[in-house]
Amino acid sequence: MSGKGIIRKRDINNNVNNLQLVTYSPHSSKRSNEVANWSIVPYENKVKETLKLYKDLYNELSNEQNREPKQEGRRMIRLDIEVANRLKKKGKLISPENRFGHIPGIKIGDRFHYRAELVVIGLHCQYVSGIDYVMLDGEKVATSIVNSGRYVNEAKTSDVLIYSGQGGKVKQGEISDQVLKHGNLALVNSCKSKSPVRVIRKTKNSYGLFMFVYEGLYIVNNFWKEKDFDRRQVVFKFEMHRMSDQEKVMGHHQSGGGSRKRSLKDCCLAYDVSQGKEKFAVRAMNGIDGERPGKFGYVTETVYPEWCKKIEHGGCGCIDGCSSSGRCVCVLKNGGSDIVYECGPFCKCPSSCLNRVSQVVFCCKKTCVGPSHSETRGSRYQLELFKTESNGWGVRSRSYISSGSFVCEYVGKLQQIKELNDQGVDQNGPCELFSFPIPKFKDRCRSDDNETWFVIDASKVGNVGRFIRHSKSPSLVVQQVLYDHDDVRMPHVMFFAAKNIPPLHELTCDRIEV
């Protein structure tokens, strides 16, 4: 079966030009000279779409894995590889065959969070091996390498890399030298043919998490064997020069093989701020000072005062999960209003109903089994608090959040606005003061304005949402939702992702106009 590869004609200065797409068989020496019209822009969109598919499926499988009870002796799967394999079976991988040179749609400096993402987009098609290659004219020729720091690699300059070969054993007293085969042989052949090799560097971001950065095309200029006294074996060394006229990688950090002063690492000052009330522990991370978050009562649902009498929610009679949205009375309430109506506890539909987007229900006891288990609401993402340098505490997720996903609810004690004013609380900024005003519109009011203007006060009780700060460029959008009552004066305040949010990026919302 033929694959597709990129072959480039080179001038005497080894500059890449005359981009041509040709077809070849990875196990044959036959190649065609057929040139394809490959437009770059659609491929950028394709790369983004494929990465979104990967991250969405990763989050889905991760949630399933977290919900399943742990079993002794059960073999844990590599979730990142499992996701890539599933996408491969569905035919969703980009460039499933290896290619030479740049991959259309991927720019120098692009960063990736998982090693398997490199496979999914065709940048490096090996899950573990650091050297990727294809058979070309009966010879192994390298297409890409990952500078992961597993071996001692050295950066002589910003454009010259000394890359260590692969193989050999240094395990349980067994020591064997690296040999000229597989990836090592492929790099030697690349040196002879002067074919470009993609370089991806594994590094750590400012939060201490690993990521993979595409650094561009390199040429193998020289190779040799030498004795590695630390590993006590003979290893191959490859001197690789970055090709000229390429964009520089911004924020270049030394890879695992070198040394560079590291930023202060966050320290965990509180393992679980929620005290076991959330599905995932809510950690408090601080790399600035030794301050801990202020004390407050952690709750997962809004606390209503005794005088509050909620209007009962009618509920739907659907038994098909509300798949027939044209018949569900809850779904039919939506449209033309600033409030979203979801199915709730008075509906006959199951908890898996499509119209319960913001109602993520978990068992609150990790060991509970049987029908007597208790449930709690919360976020499907592992959120954590972190100390900022100048603005107090913020909130971030340890996993990728797709655009449109429900993140968490803002909960606290429901109060009338005049009650908070009587207490001397200013309402200029919702999140910093641990209070969230519920927007009020005239068509909702059925009595005096002061009687119907409510605030969710999280100064004494609340959840992780109380730490979400506002921003002029928010990553979250606020949505008002009703599901357990029909009183439009006091809807639930939900946070949804306004865009794709990478791991460890602060979650922020816009100011609320009331």
UniProtKB/TrEMBL annotation:
Location of the protein in the cell: Chromosome; Nucleus
Residue span(s) of domain Pre-SET: 314-361
Organism of this sequence: Castilleja foliolosa
Domain SET: 381-512
Record protein name field: Uncharacterized protein
Keyword Isomerase belongs to the record: no
Predominant location category: nucleus
Keywords carried by this UniProt record: Chromosome, Nucleus
Segments forming domain YDG: 101-242
Any one Pfam family match given in the protein's UniProt record, by short name: SAD_SRA
Matches recorded under PANTHER family: HISTONE-LYSINE N-METHYLTRANSFERASE SETMAR, HISTONE-LYSINE N-METHYLTRANSFERASE, H3 LYSINE-9 SPECIFIC SUVH6
GO cellular component terms, semicolon-separated: chromosome; nucleus
Superkingdom, taxonomy of origin: Eukaryota
